[in-house]
Amino acid sequence: MTEKLFALSVADALLIDPQSDALVVKGTALLSSTMEQTMQEQEVFAGRGSQLQFTYNYQKVLSFQIEAADFSPTYLALQTGSKIKHEMSKYYTEETVTFDASGKGTLSDKPIGGVYVEMASNHNTITATDSVINVPSLANKTAKVVYQYNVLVDKLTIPANSFPKAYKLVLTSDIFSADGDKVFEQQIIAPRYKLDGALSMNLTHDGVSQFTLNGKTLADDDNNYAYITWKPVGNTKVAISMLAANIGETTLAVGETETVTVYGIRGGEYSNIVMDNSTLTFTTDDEAVATFVNGVITAKAVGETNVKVSDGTNKDTIEVVVA
Fold it and tell me: What pTM, to 2 d.p., does this model score?
């Protein structure tokens, strides 16, 4: 990754229950997905003039802020630490009722308790008989009514003593080159992501309600917070700055062999990689002394020669002595 790269757009998010390994949420309509690391720093001043001699860091925190544009009851359940149940429940409804000449009106459902009838001057509470109400003053008229009835619903209860638990968080996004080509897919995995329980549902006349799934990561069994991977896309290759064989010279007896491991040196903060021999070219200056095939040096006759390995751009040389 030595070229200029750009992380564009928002990530897709997965929340997975670490106990059952079940997918709980698949968020593909996020407005933002942010990872932020903070830590405390202590400064040590000493000596003449109170010079800064040392700093040390502690209390590292890795947090994520996820904002979704779509609505899902699961978002509410996750932040409240509760389950969505399918059960009978009381439900308020509003409807328009047409009354006949005697003032009798029929409701769509059987009400529980009183029926609130909208009148010209005020709202009257009427007791229904089954699903029928009688309001003589509304004969041959229509009126809006509000009442409760029993219906089978998905129901979420927000208890006072229930809190969110930790989930595995997976964020997947795209990395593009300066030419606009997608070159990597980036994936961030936080094995133990603890939601903060903050909940807000802002219903407005001119927009959609946005939901947040913010929280912090807890250390996993290996004392790590998260793992970030970059998967090459299409013809993207891992860029290296040089090749390096694991040996610079070797001495062999006639008939002996030695297997060479070739590393790609990436530089910077990147670790070296073991090269795939199928992507490399192996040659020798004198095949009568030694051959170099698919990473294996074979001593043929007494003498000295150089064997070489190349990826087309970078190369390394090994001195071979056959005694």
Answer: 0.77
Structure-derived torsion over alpha carbons of residues 242, 247, 250, 253, reported in degrees to the nearest 10: -110
Supply the DSSP symbol for 270.
Answer: P
Contact 214, 35 (CB under 8 A): no
* Rounded-to-integer distance, Cα 9 and Cα 193, Å: 22
Cα of 247 vs its chain's centroid, Å:
42
The b-or-e profile of 217-256 (16+ CB within 10 A means b, else e) is beebeeeebbeeeeeeeeebeeebeebbbeeeebebeeee
Backbone φ/ψ region at 177: left (φ over 0), alpha (ψ -120 to 50), beta? beta
- What pLDDT digit, counting tens, does each position of 11-21 carry? 999 999 999 99
User: How far apart (Å, rounded) are the C-alpha atoms in residues 12 and 28?
Assistant: 5
Q: 308 to each of 101, 234, 265, 303, 320, how far by Cα in Å? A: 104, 30, 16, 17, 10
Q: Tokens 């001699």 correspond to what residue?
A: 53
Distance, in Å, from the CA atom of 257 to the CA atom of 191, rounded to the nearest integer, reads 45
Domains, in order of start, for the chain: 5-41+56-81+160-232 (2.30.110), 86-156 (no CATH), 242-322 (2.60.40.1080)
The token pair that represents 80 in the structure block: 């409240």
d(CA 34, CA 214) in angstroms, rounded, equals 9
Return the amino acid letter for 134.
N
- Alpha-carbon distance of 260 to 32, in angstroms, equals 48
- Residues 263-288 have pLDDT tens digits of 999 888 889 999 999 999 999 999 99
Asked whether the beta carbons of 116 and 146 are under 8 A apart, the reply is yes
Cβ(265)–Cβ(240) under 8 Å? yes
